[in-house]
Write a structure and sequence with these properties.
Strand order of the largest sheet: 3-6-1-8-7
Low-confidence stretches: none
Shape: globular
Order of helices and strands: EEHEEEEHEEEEHHEHEEEHE
Structural class: alpha+beta
CATH architecture of the largest domain: 2-Layer Sandwich
Largest sheet: 5 strands, antiparallel
Radius of gyration: 18 Å
Mean pLDDT: 93
């Protein structure tokens, strides 16, 4: 279940936060989610969105309206988290105070075998808290190794989520194909589709922001839609959205 929450920034609080602010969000939301019964690992959230300008590694919001998307496999967990957010006068993210105003449930898309996604929070391939050196290595997103690693991560998470061996055997079809036109354009412009981020524990890791096509069983797409793709999704990494056609 996905829920989009709209906030108004408290004018007396800061109007900027670090560009990479998932750790701040994880700390703020964690104060609420840790008190809710349910699997904390089956929870995901986006970065903050709003009209903004990026300067020297900070995101300065030009409008007071800011949104956040949260998602969970459990409707009860998602609704309980929203209730706790609205039970408080504001959500503190760093030095910015966000006053909750409205929320709406985002309908699930029609899950097909082939779907096109874009990352709305960085996709992390290797957990730096377990493999610190490997987490900083660039894995070519056009390689089979990239797709295979995503497959192994996803199936491992689905197994831990309670899918049976018989169900997992039905999910053998899996192929992630990045948008080559986008990658070529980024490379030619001198920009980056992968950057370094910090885990909640403060360890450095490489994260990707790129559009891609995923061929997989519809149930796999549903799982990714609800709880994200890659590792450390409970820290707000790996949330995807559909590419608008």
């Amino acid at each position: 279940m996905r829920i989009k929450i709209s906030f108004l920034r408290e004018h007396s609080s800061a109007n900027s936060i670090p560009l990479h602010h998932q750790k701040l969000l994880a700390d703020s939301l964690g104060e609420y989610s840790d008190t809710i019964t349910g699997d904390r690992l089956m929870f995901n959230f986006s970065s903050l969105k709003g009209t903004s300008k990026i300067t020297n590694g900070f995101m300065r919001f030009l409008s007071s309206k800011i949104t956040l998307v949260i998602s969970s496999r459990s409707q009860e967990f998602a609704e309980a988290l929203v209730t706790k957010i609205f039970d408080n006068p504001f959500l503190a993210v760093g030095k910015m105070n966000l006053i909750p105003k409205t929320y709406e449930v985002i309908p699930d898309p029609s899950f097909q075998t082939k779907m096109r996604y874009l990352c709305i929070s960085p996709l992390i391939m290797v957990n730096p808290d377990k493999e610190p050196e490997r987490a900083q290595e660039l894995i070519d997103p056009t390689s089979q190794a990239f797709s295979d690693l995503l497959y192994n991560i996803t199936l491992d998470r689905m197994e831990k989520a309670g899918y049976t061996e018989a169900q997992l055997n039905e999910f053998a079809e899996f192929e992630a194909q990045p948008d080559m036109e986008y990658i070529t354009k980024i490379n030619e412009s001198g920009k980056k589709f992968a950057r370094f981020y910090k885990s909640a524990a403060g360890n450095t890791m490489l994260g990707f922001l790129l559009p891609f096509t995923l061929h997989a069983h519809p149930e796999v797409h549903k799982f990714i839609w609800e709880v994200g793709l890659g590792v450390l999704t409970e820290e707000g990494y790996g949330m995807v959205d559909l590419v608008k056609s």
